[in-house]
Amino acid sequence: MQELDTPTFRLAVAQFDQAAEAMGLDTNLRERLKLPQRSLVVSLPVRMDDGRVEVFTGYRVQHDSSRGPSKGGVRYHPDVSLGEVAALAMWMTWKCALAGLPYGGAKGGVQVAPKSLSPGELQRLTRRYAAEIFPLIGPDKDVPAPDVGTDAQIMAWMMDTYSQQVGYAVPGVVTGKPLSIGGSLGREEATGRGVVYVTLEALRHLNLPIETATVAVQGFGNVGAHTARIMQQQGARVIAVSDVSGGIYNPKGLDIATLMRRDPSQPLYQTKLGDAITNEELLQLECTVLVPAALSEQITGKNADRLKCRILSEGANGPTTLEADHILADKGIFVIPDILANSGGVIVSYFEWVQDLQRFFWSAADIQNRLQDIITSAFHRTLRFSSERRVSMRMAALMSGIDQVAQAHLQRGLYP
Fold it and tell me: Does the pTM of the predicted model rise above 0.85?
């Protein structure tokens, strides 16, 4: 399908093909799992504050539902495309299976720069999007969540729009909601906390003490900021962070709490808390842990050889190309792949969904402990698989996740 032919989708399919070949996956299943189960493209006419009507394009893609309802975020970004959303949905399928969650993968998005909209325009866009994808979503069908450019408020509008359609409150239709309408404690920081948990396991595996570890984080949004904050609390020295406008570097360590309190519209370099650096320079800093937590395909064949980290912990989805993977392996860099490293978000989303369905809510400590148990167990299963099969951590994670989905398809059979 030509509409799917984007660099991100090609990367997702190439990773899948490599894993499928290594595990000898059934040819028929290969063809099915390369493409989404269901894709919806919607037109979103929105009345702007000045009275004119602007039409946006939105997407919802369900890659697989063999193991349960599909699950995945909604992204608001100018570069959103059907191919990108389909790739992210595929990665969500493997991510959920690897973590042992009873979900398939989905993803959604709207082509829009959310910061260019007023609060009223953003609400009208969100409600129209939720209404257009209404036939596909539901607590037993497909459960959206926040992603790049979206937040708890947007999830609240989506939950309310769905609830108005059915006539009663359905908190379980989305996750990442405010606490007042069925959100979960710990959801906002969940992805970053999960990145920290697996990174700490990797440091122990490599006999690298946390007290002497240095950390650089590309992307100081929700995932990157919480990763930096919690890594610092654990005793690491965070020496560099960046956002879309560039970053700052201080070899003595940055004050992450102060950076998180700044006005979000203020570029990091204006804080004067470190020397200004570019995103590309951040990736090439000498450090113990590098966390790419921005967008996909940041580490490529062109710059992978210049990385000087010991551990690459992928907070973003698809930040490393296949060509870069080979270079990183030759350099001996320990890679914690995205579908493992950033699975904390979907794990705590699962907790929120379960709490909503049961109308019974857990403590923050309970959620953190459950998250740590699930994600560290997934890390050690992947590490054992990697060692036993002599494959990279990425291939081990992909093969493990794909095998779970393949078994579900084979046991359910083909209908009709």
Answer: yes
